[in-house]
Amino acid sequence: MTAQPIHPHDPDRVPRTAQGIAAALSAERRTQFCEELMAATPEEAAAVLRRWWCEAQLDTDPAGDRVTAEALAGTLPTTTVADLIERRRRDGLPVE
């Protein structure tokens, strides 16, 4: 038996590149992303790409409308930040 994630997702739905992120965003959001990336210092660029990759993942999530509706209705399952950080550390993911 293998363990499966509770909420499976396709991590490659949006490539982790500036071009991949830009392609996944709406025209308005693409403009915001490009402006922010162009204004970033080299030290800030990685954080800009990471944040906008998350935005693009959310924008292209097939369940996005359902999640938005649940959040607005107050029925979206939640977790604590401490639990989330522990889970990310356990899974070997970055915690910033």
Q: Your description of this structure?
A:
With 96 residues, this protein is mainly α. The protein has two domains: 1-62, no CATH class; 64-96, no CATH class. Helices cover 60% and strands 0% of the residues. The protein has five helices and no strands. The radius of gyration is 16 Å and the shape is globular. The termini are far apart. 6% of the residues are buried.
How would you summarize this macromolecular structure in one to three sentences?
Helix content is 60%, strand content 0%. It is an all-alpha fold and 96 residues long. It folds into two domains: 1-62, no CATH class; 64-96, no CATH class.
Report the major sheet: none
SS summary, helix count: 5
Supply the helix-strand structural class: mainly alpha
How much of the polypeptide forms β-strand, as a percent range? under 5%
Distance between the termini: 33 Å
- Inertia-based shape: globular
**Total beta-strand segments:** 0
* Tally of discrete structural domains: 2
H-E string: HHHHH
Rounded to an integer, what's the Rg over CA atoms? Answer: 16 Å
User: Fraction of residues in helices?
Assistant: 55-70%
Low-confidence stretches: none
Instruction: Output mean pLDDT.
Output: 89
